[in-house]
Specification:
The chain is of the alpha/beta class. It contains eight helices and seven strands; from the N terminus they run βαβαβαβαβαβαααβ. It has a seven-stranded parallel sheet, sandwiched between helices. The chain is globular, with a radius of gyration of 18 Å.
């Protein structure tokens, strides 16, 4: 792709309390009929449907970056699947996080909301301890939180920007994997650890050096952890979203700006010619969290509409 001076991310930047990433273009989703999940004949079961009755929980799942976008969709999907959910995000996302908690409670799921900075080891340790104390254990860890910067050119990226990106996307995922694994090993009943990589962690693009490198790092960490934790019946996998229609991405668009050539290129780079919805990514995570995925480990599953092919 040319002119790749931006990154699509479902998560707010937590660096130096700065603003969310501003996307310097507009992306429009393709017409509804081109996305089968938007077809009138497609019925999506809502996790808020009052007709659904509570059931014995499958276990406890923790999702970081759960207040919006992909993280929100994952939390709701895992709740729909029958997990009790620990919701984690930064304090600035308290209102959104509480809304997700209320949606889960409507279907009888137990929830706990925790505010933590995944860059900080003590906060991640306390996050795990809080979840165990309130929900009784940990069976699924989804290390979803991440950040992106609008310009990651190798020529202009500062050491500070590089370190800031890796602090969340690299160290944050590592800490979540480590302390989730310690808890799961101690429990002795196996588990699922799942991390957020990216399509750009499978095939890099220009002008995104820090982001691409951090997401490639998640893949390496995932493979190494899978080999180490396999004997404990803990699977470790990652998901790699492509261009995804998230609230943060939409919020950056101006309604009076026409779709740019770059935006068209982002969508046209997919084989399917439309943006993913957060629920598309959540469906893959749902499988990776399930008992049916017990023989899948060390993998990074692309959810990118054919942007990357392997």
């Amino acid at each position: 792709m040319a002119q790749s001076s931006m990154l699509i991310s479902a998560y707010p930047s937590t660096v130096k309390n700065g603003p969310e990433v501003e996307l310097p273009y507009q992306i429009k989703a393709r017409p509804a009929q081109e996305d089968p999940t938007r077809s009138p004949s497609y019925r999506k079961v809502s996790p808020m449907m009052p007709s659904q009755s509570p059931s014995t929980p499958k276990g406890v799942a923790l999702v970081t970056g759960a207040a919006q976008g992909i993280g929100r969709a994952i939390a709701l999907k895992l709740g729909e699947d029958g997990f009790d959910i620990a919701l984690v995000d930064i304090p600035a996302k308290k209102v959104q996080l509480e809304e997700v908690a209320q949606m889960l409670k409507l279907v009888g799921r137990r929830t706990v909301t925790t505010y933590a900075d995944v860059r900080v080891e003590t906060q991640v340790k306390d996050m795990i301890a809080d979840v165990v104390a309130n929900l009784g254990g940990l069976d699924v860890m989804v290390a979803n939180a991440g950040i992106a910067h609008p310009n990651g050119s190798i020529l202009s990226t500062s050491v500070e920007q590089w370190d800031a990106t890796f602090a969340v996307n690299g160290r944050g995922v590592f800490l979540c994997y480590k302390y989730a694994a310690l808890q799961m090993v101690a429990q002795g009943r196996g588990g699922r650890i799942i991390g957020a990589s990216s399509a750009w962690g499978k095939r890099a693009i220009a002008h995104a050096a820090d982001y691409c490198a951090s997401k490639f790092a998640v893949r390496g960490l995932t493979q190494s952890a899978a080999l180490e934790l396999g004997p404990h019946k803990i699977t470790v996998n990652a998901y790699a979203p492509g261009p995804t229609d998230t609230p943060m991405l939409r919020a950056q668009q101006s309604p009076d700006i026409k779709e740019t050539e770059y935006a068209k290129e982002v969508v046209d780079a997919t084989a399917l010619k439309y943006l993913a919805q957060p629920e598309n990514v959540a469906a893959v995570v749902s499988f990776l969290a399930s008992k049916e995925s017990h023989f899948v480990t060390g993998q990074c599953i692309a959810v990118d509409g054919g942007t990357t092919l392997s």
